[in-house]
From TrEMBL:
The chain crosses the membrane at residues 7-29, 41-59, 75-93, 105-129, 149-171. The keyword Membrane applies. It is found in: Membrane. InterPro entries: Cation_efflux, Cation_efflux_CTD, Cation_efflux_CTD_sf, Cation_efflux_TM, Cation_efflux_TMD_sf, CDF_Transporter. Residues 11-202 form the Cation efflux protein transmembrane domain. This is Cation diffusion facilitator family transporter. Belongs to the cation diffusion facilitator (CDF) transporter (TC 2.A.4) family. It holds the Pfam family Cation_efflux. Signal peptide: none annotated. Residues 207-283 form the Cation efflux protein cytoplasmic domain. It is a multi-pass membrane protein. Its main location: membrane. It comes from Roseibium aestuarii. Keywords: Membrane, Transmembrane, Transmembrane helix, Transport.
Length: 295
C-alpha cells in the first residue's frame, strides 16, 4: 500500500471519528449550529471515500487504454468533493430555516462543547497532514480534502464561539444566524474546490514559475542546440507533461541530437518532479528565432 493510499484511508477513519464526536455534541446541546457542523462532517466522510478511490485509481500504471496513466482520476474525485460540499451547504440552509421556524432552545453543555472542540482539533491536525502530503506527492485529491478540512476547522471554531455567546447572552437567534454563516462558508469552499479541480481537467498549463524553470533548463543544458520554441505544458495529477521543438544544426548526427535531448530531459526532471518531456528535433532551417535561444 502506497503512502498516499494510507493517508487517504486515514482520512476516512478521521472523518468517521469526527462525525461521531460532532453528532454527540449536537445531541448534548440541541444547537442547530452544531448540527450544521456535523452535517458538513458527513461530507468529509463521503469526500474521504471519493479520495480513497481516486488515489487508488491514480496509482495504477499506464495501460493500453490509458497510455498517459490514470492521474486525472484525482481531479474527478476533487470535483465530486466540491459537489458534495455544495450539497451539504444546501442541507445546512434547510436545517437553519427549520430551526428559525421552530425556535428550538440551545442547552448549555460544557461537555458537549468540549466534544466538538476535540473534533475540531482532530480535523486541524489531519488537515495539516493532508496538505503536507498533497504538496509532497502532488496530489489534487489530497489537497482538496485538506482544504475542506481547513474550512471545517474554522467553521467549528466559529460555531463553538457562537454557541458560547448564545449561552451567555440568552439570544437564541444567534444560533440560527451562526448555522446560516456555516452554510455560506461551506458553499464558498465547495466553489473553490470545484474551480481548482476543473482547471486540472481542462489541461491548465503549468505555472509561470515552472515554465520559467523549464526555459532555464533548456538554456543551461542545451549546448549544441540553437533554439527551442512552441513550449507547451499541462498538468495531469502528479505528472506535468512538457513538449517543445528543439532546433539543432542540420549537419548534427542523430546520436548527438539525442544526447542533447537526454541532457535537457534529465535537467528538467530534476527541477520539475513528475515531468514527462517530449522533444521534437528540427533542423536549423526550421528555426523561428523566438522562444528559448540556446546560442
Amino acid at each position: 500500500m502506497t503512502i498516499r493510499l494510507k493517508i487517504a484511508l486515514g482520512s476516512l477513519v478521521v472523518g468517521m471519528l469526527s462525525l461521531g464526536l460532532k453528532y454527540t455534541a449536537f445531541l448534548m446541546t440541541g444547537s442547530t449550529a452544531l448540527y450544521a457542523d456535523a452535517l458538513e462532517t458527513i461530507v468529509n466522510v463521503a469526500a474521504s471515500l471519493a479520495t480513497l478511490f481516486a488515489v487508488w485509481m491514480a496509482a495504477k500504471p499506464a495501460d493500453q487504454n490509458h497510455p498517459y496513466g490514470h492521474d486525472k482520476a484525482e481531479y474527478f474525485a476533487a470535483v465530486l468533493v466540491g459537489v458534495l460540499i455544495v450539497l451539504a451547504s444546501l442541507s445546512i440552509f434547510h436545517s437553519t430555516w427549520q430551526s428559525y421556524l421552530s425556535s428550538e432552545v440551545v442547552t448549555y453543555s460544557p461537555l458537549g462543547l468540549g466534544v466538538n472542540a476535540a473534533a475540531a482539533a482532530l480535523n486541524g491536525v489531519w488537515a495539516w497532514v493532508l496538505l503536507k502530503a498533497a504538496k509532497k506527492h502532488r496530489s489534487p485529491a489530497l489537497r482538496a480534502d485538506g482544504k475542506h478540512l481547513v474550512a471545517d476547522v474554522f467553521t467549528s471554531l466559529g460555531v463553538l464561539a457562537g454557541v458560547g455567546l448564545v449561552t451567555l447572552t440568552g439570544w437564541q437567534m444567534l444560533d440560527t444566524v451562526l448555522a446560516g454563516l456555516v452554510g455560506v462558508n461551506v458553499l464558498w469552499t465547495g466553489w473553490e474546490v470545484m474551480k481548482e479541480s476543473v482547471s486540472g481537467l481542462m489541461d491548465e498549463a503549468a505555472s509561470e514559475d515552472v515554465q520559467a524553470h523549464i526555459r532555464d533548463m533548456i538554456r543551461d543544458h542545451g549546448d549544441g542546440a540553437l533554439e527551442a520554441h512552441d513550449l507547451r505544458t499541462r498538468h495531469s495529477g502528479r505528472t506535468t507533461f512538457i513538449d517543445f521543438h528543439l532546433v539543432v544544426p542540420g549537419d548534427l548526427t542523430v546520436d548527438a541530437a539525442h544526447e542533447i535531448c537526454d541532457r535537457i530531459e534529465q535537467a528538467i526532471g530534476r527541477k520539475v518532479p513528475g515531468a514527462h518531456v517530449t522533444i521534437h528535433v528540427e533542423p536549423d532551417h526550421k528555426a523561428k528565432h523566438r522562444g528559448v535561444l540556446v546560442l
